[in-house]
Amino acid sequence: MIVERLPIEPPKPQDIVIERWLAYARRVRNVIFNPAAPIQLAVAEKNLVIEWEAPEVNIEQTFNFLGITEADPMSYIAQYGTSLVETSKLPKEAARFEIPAGHVLAAETNPNQTPILKGDIEALRKIDLNCHGLNEYVNQI
Q: Is pTM beyond 0.85 here?
């Protein structure tokens, strides 16, 4: 009897998984304006005494480690090179996949795009947007 044993097959290469996310639609912020009630003058009370006491409080601080690590950008570039900093470059395998018609990839959009305002936008003209930290909406009003 002759038994021929073949060598073990080499392991198959791992699959290459390329994830490309479609961009979300531009956010919309609804503006609702409810006018304040008219000012009512308070009637002055006679012999009114107001006493203030320090409240009894129990302050308890808890900290949870969330796995965040700080890194120096210069040491990161020195260790990994500038190829990882440039996120717009895709591997050559990903270049052959087409983007669906009418869609944009999330990597090609501006994540800090100002949301579109809808609703009672005219009410925002009554306040100073710069004072309240809303100066990014000045162009929409």
A: no
